[in-house]
Amino acid sequence: MTPADGPTGAARGHDALVLAATPQARGTVQLPGSKSISNRALLLAALARGATTLHGLLAADDVQRMREALAALGVAVAPGVGPREVVVAGCAGRWPQRKADLFLGNAGTAVRPLTAALAVAGGDYTIRGVARMYERPIGDLVDPLRALGCDVRYLAAPGYPPLAIGASQARAGGEIAIRGDVSSQFLSALLMALPLARGAEAAPTTVRLATPLVSRPYVAITTNLMQRFGVAPATPDERTFVVPAGPGYASPGDLHVEGDASAASYFLAAGVLGGGPVRVEGVGRASIQGDVAFADVLRSLGADVRYGPDWIESRRAGRLRGGTIDCTAIPDAAMTLAVTALFAAEPTALTGIASWRVKETDRIVAMATELAKLGATVDAGRDHLRIVPPPSLRPATIDTYDDHRMAMCFSLAAFGGVAVTIRDPGCVGKTFPEYFAVLGQLTGVAGAYVHA
């Protein structure tokens, strides 16, 4: 990377990044903070009684959108003493600003939970974002919020942002149904917001899934963090969640954000494709993130994977196997598997990926299009992607669709002995601005930014 790329390495002003054929990868990576944990922890700290110091917070676009929103809502988020440390002054469940116009970009981990928390509390709010956010459905969250007595209105197409939020009549107690088959973020958002409902100190509220739940491990992150802040939802069965009665959220004092397990997938794959060893630090066997299971999948495909309490290490142990992989629990890390499938000895079928269609882009269509450029034969369906690896990869220019994960996972194609050009490399700023700089340190191959 060059000094002109700036301290983050995001290079948003560059059109493309050319990655030369990459023969090896080895070294250690200190992972950035988890986006999923960072934004959940920021919101819960804002709603809690007392101040919370968050350590290891992710410094990236999605988290910045949440921080800006909290500031607009009157919640103080101040720098802490150490790096990536902030102190959040909790508002004890009552937003200081009862009126705000919030722009949240394309940050789903900010839009969904803030919609629920503002709607249950009530006020005069608008929630806006970029054009793609207006294509990402939110009706499965708005419907149960309205059933609770919240005033949530669509400002454009029904079922999609932008949204207007008004006064709330939401009361705790009773039972509410919610769909779980489009995005687990809807259930997470509702669970985090319910302690703000009237009467929540005296009455529990039961949430029942009306459809099967996708990405269940992400809901486990939510309930784990809620418990850290003093509200412990019960799960009497796989379709039922009970938010207990109580005084609401209370600060745990300090909370350490784990490294991003989704980001770990790129480097663990690099360790296998580039020989390794590559060690990621910040996640391990004790992680609360579901995407840590990506390492187990790599091992099942024939990689040499080793674990510690807060680290995972990978290296090559022969050619990867293919086969059918159920990705329901690891939807983000599954994108990395689509690229490692290019190197497998047999076809690979990824299933349980319907949620890809409502992410930053329609990832099923995007992945199929870009994998084909590299020479793969791809069959794409509503809930699956089948990849037949080519005899050898072709050099390709990869479109990233303003999707950070497209840019990061396709960088791994350079291990196939060909140059790969990544368009709009700065889109990684959404979650990992330094990604290409870190990758270059592992491979010893610096990418060249060009205007394409």
CATH topology descriptor of the largest domain: UDP-n-acetylglucosamine1-carboxyvinyl-transferase, Chain
Number of domains: 2
Which class of the largest domain in CATH terms? Answer: Alpha Beta
Number of strands: 24
The shape is globular
Task: Based on the coordinates given, report the CATH architecture of the largest domain.
Answer: Alpha-beta prism
Low-confidence stretches: 1-12
Helix content: 25-40%
Give the count of helical stretches.
12
Instruction: Quickly give the structural class.
Output: alpha/beta
Looking at CATH, the homologous superfamily of the largest domain is: Enolpyruvate transferase domain
User: Strand-residue fraction?
Assistant: 15-25%
Our Rg estimate from Cα atoms comes to 22 Å
Largest sheet: 4 strands, mixed
Spatial order of the strands in the main sheet? Answer: 22-23-1-24
What is the average per-residue confidence, as pLDDT, rounded to a whole number?
A: 95
Distance between the termini: 18 Å
Protein traits:
UDP-n-acetylglucosamine1-carboxyvinyl-transferase, Chain; disordered N terminus; alpha/beta; globular; 4-stranded mixed sheet; 452 residues; 24 strands
Topology (SSEs and partners):
Elements lengths: L15 E4 L5 E6 L4 H13 L3 E5 L5 H12 L4 E3 L5 E5 L9 E5 L4 H14 L2 E5 L10 H10 L1 E5 L8 E6 L6 E4 L5 H10 L11 E5 L6 H13 L5 E4 L2 E4 L10 E3 L4 H13 L1 E7 L12 H7 L3 E4 L3 E5 L7 E4 L7 H7 L7 E4 L11 H11 L3 E4 L3 E5 L7 E3 L5 H7 L9 E4 L11 H9 L4 E3 L2
Parallel strand pairs: 2-15, 3-14, 6-7, 10-11, 18-19, 22-23
Antiparallel strand pairs: 1-23, 1-24, 3-5, 4-5, 7-9, 8-9, 11-13, 12-13, 15-17, 16-17, 19-21, 20-21
